[in-house]
Amino acid sequence: MALAGTGVFAEILDGEVYRYYADGEWRASASGKSVAIVNPTTRKTQYRVQACTQEEVNKVMDAAKVAQKAWARTPLWKRAELLHKAAAILKEHKAPIAECLVKEIAKPAKDAVSEVVRSGDLVSYTAEEGVRILGEGKLLVSDSFPGNERNKYCLSSKIPLGVVLAIPPFNYPVNLAVSKIGPALIAGNSLVLKPPTQGAVAALHMVHCFHLAGFPKGLISCVTGKGSEIGDFLTMHPGVNCISFTGGDTGIAISKKAGMVPLQMELGGKDACIALEDADLDLVAANIVKGGFSYSGQRCTAVKVVLIMESIADAVVQKVNAKLVKLKVGPPEDDSDITPVVTESSANFIEGLVMDAKEKGATFCQEYRREGNLIWPLLLDHVRPDMRIAWEEPFGPVLPVIRINSVEEGIHHCNASNFGLQGCVFTRDINKAILISDAMETGTVQINSAPARGPDHFPFQGLKDSGIGSQGITNSINMMTKVKSTVINLPSPSYTMG
Ligand code: G3H
């Protein structure tokens, strides 16, 4: 039963084309043009969204600026109250939003529902965390610095940045949008959202939940359209005071072009799984499958290279293969484990990596199989560093295994990557695990579990080309604020006596 664009969501649809959201209203673009969203499973146009113009972006930025001034004066508890309301509405409407995720990005049905529920929880937690951390400031006294007496009191607090531009990726168009929207709003900023083309309709439904919650007009906007028309225009717009981006290489280009504004970026990874001889091999195999193949490997935190000690490699490969056979491959509506990858060009790219590995002599644990955008899960054993797949991020259900003879070899491979998002190490020896974690140049190391961003209040950051800054609810709220100080200068030193 199709629910998207119906009921309370009917007003976001204009005939065949989803409207964009500006100044508290759902509008059709003056361009008269739309952008097609192709269903990865059927490879046919599923939805259409407005192709917004630069002039429309300008108007959105102006409205965001005005709305932010009033919002910054809105009491913190009231901001939190509205966020809690939006979270509840979001969860109430999980079915139509999940339906969009299934159709636009081929997310397995159950995972699509989880994404929306997780998003509601994230927004609620953000509201609570914001009240906790933004309700406090600091008092500093001058006599801690040499040459000063206590005649200056410094009051510092966190204030909003202004207009935050949020650009989430296709793989979590709802969750990685609210992980930016929630912190921005609770901190007193306004928010302009540019969703990915695939995932845009899910994002528009999510934005409507914020609209229904009753946020002031202009505070949140959502513009859709072609990157070539409005992409650079948005990221280089003088009205933007902060950019929070999750995605691929585009982030590097954005960071070079953006003005003097704080950037929060998460740009992918080549997360290594290092398994030592003393590891629980069943646990290793289970996490390789979960970490490498959930959502068909289309997660920045997916396990993307297995670095395994030669002595346990055969056993682990066998266990992984036994699990891969059991994965259900097919359309997302059937709640398959492996679903079509997001676009034909992604599938072609993955295939290119697989063929390169084949030419260079990797062992195929399964036969390579592809139908349209659907690629069957594939484990490539005996991968060597001269193969592209040893270094590049497939973002698909294909996983290389590199056999190593020492832990140092594994750490060396991990650190030679230009990425540094997460990694994981499997061992029963906590002392070794800590040493390896410290040696791995990644933002996070998971001990005895696959990499993952959540729980969503944990710090989440990448080193090197994997990103700038740290995310996670608390860090994102802090990142979307700046410090403001007021210094009280007393005519004579004053000391509080006990
Ligand atoms: O794709 C990037 C996401 O931040 C990964 O999130 O670890 O919850 O799948 P996840």
TrEMBL record:
<dbReference type="InterPro" id="IPR016162">
    <property type="entry name" value="Ald_DH_N"/>
</dbReference>
<dbReference type="GO" id="GO:0008886">
    <property type="term" value="F:glyceraldehyde-3-phosphate dehydrogenase (NADP+) (non-phosphorylating) activity"/>
</dbReference>
<dbReference type="InterPro" id="IPR016161">
    <property type="entry name" value="Ald_DH/histidinol_DH"/>
</dbReference>
<feature type="active site">
    <location>
        <position position="266"/>
    </location>
</feature>
<dbReference type="InterPro" id="IPR015590">
    <property type="entry name" value="Aldehyde_DH_dom"/>
</dbReference>
<feature type="domain" description="Aldehyde dehydrogenase">
    <location>
        <begin position="26"/>
        <end position="485"/>
    </location>
</feature>
<keyword id="KW-0963">Cytoplasm</keyword>
<keyword id="KW-0521">NADP</keyword>
<comment type="function">
    <text>Important as a means of generating NADPH for biosynthetic reactions.</text>
</comment>
<dbReference type="GO" id="GO:0008911">
    <property type="term" value="F:lactaldehyde dehydrogenase (NAD+) activity"/>
</dbReference>
<dbReference type="InterPro" id="IPR051020">
    <property type="entry name" value="ALDH-related_metabolic_enz"/>
</dbReference>
<comment type="similarity">
    <text>Belongs to the aldehyde dehydrogenase family.</text>
</comment>
<dbReference type="GO" id="GO:0005737">
    <property type="term" value="C:cytoplasm"/>
</dbReference>
<dbReference type="InterPro" id="IPR016160">
    <property type="entry name" value="Ald_DH_CS_CYS"/>
</dbReference>
<keyword id="KW-0560">Oxidoreductase</keyword>
<protein>
    <recommendedName>
        <fullName>NADP-dependent glyceraldehyde-3-phosphate dehydrogenase</fullName>
        <ecNumber>1.2.1.9</ecNumber>
    </recommendedName>
</protein>
<dbReference type="InterPro" id="IPR016163">
    <property type="entry name" value="Ald_DH_C"/>
</dbReference>
<dbReference type="InterPro" id="IPR029510">
    <property type="entry name" value="Ald_DH_CS_GLU"/>
</dbReference>
<dbReference type="Pfam" id="PF00171">
    <property type="entry name" value="Aldedh"/>
</dbReference>
